[in-house]
Target: Glycoside hydrolase family 39 protein
Amino acid sequence: MFPSLLLSLLVATAATAAVVDLESRQSASQITTVDLSVNWGTPIRRASGVLYGVPSTANQIPSSFYTGMGFNYLSAGGAQFVNATGWIYGGYTSRFQDVLSNFNTARQFGAQFVLKMSDLWGTDGTQVAATAVYPGVGSDASFTEFNAYLTQLVSDLKAHGMTSNIKSMAQYLAMWSHAVNFLRTNLPGVPIMGPAFAGAPSTSNTWWTSFLAHVKADGTAPDVYSWHHEGSSTDPTNDLQSSQPTMVSMLNSAGLAIGEFIIDEYANANEQNPGSTAWWIARFERFNMSGLRGNWLNGANLQDFLAGILWKSGNTYFANGIWQVYDYYANSMTGFRVATTGSTDRLMDNFAVVGTNIVRILVGGRLVTGTYSLQIKNLSALGLPTSGTIQVQTRQFSFAGTTGQEGAPTALGLVSHTYSGNVLSFPIFQTDTVTTWAFEFNF
Ligand SMILES: *[C@@H]1O[C@H](CO)[C@@H](O)[C@H](O)[C@H]1NC(C)=O
Ligand SMILES: *[C@@H]1O[C@H](CO)[C@@H](O)[C@H](O)[C@H]1NC(C)=O
Ligand SMILES: *[C@@H]1O[C@H](CO)[C@@H](O)[C@H](O)[C@H]1NC(C)=O
Model:
């Protein structure tokens, strides 16, 4: 398992669910499946991470919002604060206090903390490109300033007991090697995470190919590989179904070990809704990858609202429809995971668990409308007959925007389905791009 602190070295309309049998209407590309006979192990809330979103003031967001969403990863370093500062602007000390506060919040809830070293340095999107100092270039060509920064940071991490586990990432290859060697010497045994490129791994991306060749050659490969998924919702490479096998293949070609993969920014701005969130969860679970939710808020709001799944009225926080999906995922979807497949058009998917006498299936579409089908195979694996009738409950997750309060999903009632051939199928009528559904049945 990973340690509690990860160190990242960076540069830079209501729908209704009518449920009837009409499997014959579905084409192959519209089916998302569950195979109850294949156990994928215990769910560990892999997708319940957030990028920023935690205030510097401890306990400002009530704890129930953290436990409810299954909070298990936080990545932060103090980006885009009002009067943005950092090491290169003489503002390191106060920014480190913000980091320490965020680290303590992560520890309070048993979440792992990824420290964004670039934020602390000061390259957090607010730096003035022409005058900002970058490690190992220009006025810092000999790494004097960067070494002073790393020395201070290592000292502070040790002083505050933040060294139990660390991972990291970088953009410039020379800086990468310099930092990895420095950290491995001064924080031995601490895992390193990187490179956190904004683009998914690809054999035609020279950042990736150069990075892998470089770290292989000088022995500075990270322990954990990370990258972002923030591109277009219709780009097939902006999908774990492409990036995970590509990364495995590229590591094999480079002669590097296959470590853990963590996406430190997932779901772009228009995917911030219940349906797309469930779609991403299904994929993280299938590929056994962990994910930190992208944060599309700005300025002070960036360090609040758990990356856009909460909002507040005065000082009182409330959940929006996305938080309700994470709550169901973290707290209702217990038991063991079973094998699933997404639709071949890549736009509908599901995550399924078998609990105590109950199956729970969370479906999610990636900004699609239309009729899809959910096909649940091998019911006999649960001791059910291979044909018969099953009562299925549908729960609806609605969405009224980031600032719209939503309660627990609405139970739409039980619908009886007959099945045969050990397979139960029923349609998912997706009439808008944001609402999503969970289906449940007892056995
Ligand atoms: C994910 O983990 C489960 C349980 O260990 C395993 O059966 C499955 O093959 C893994 N999936 C991938 C894509 O590695
Ligand atoms: C930002 O800097 C200005 C000018 O120094 C100061 O008046 C203001 O209080 C600062 N804001 C914060 C949030 O620190
Ligand atoms: C599960 O279902 C599939 C398709 O219906 C079938 O081919 C397979 O043999 C089943 N597996 C088990 C273990 O029954």
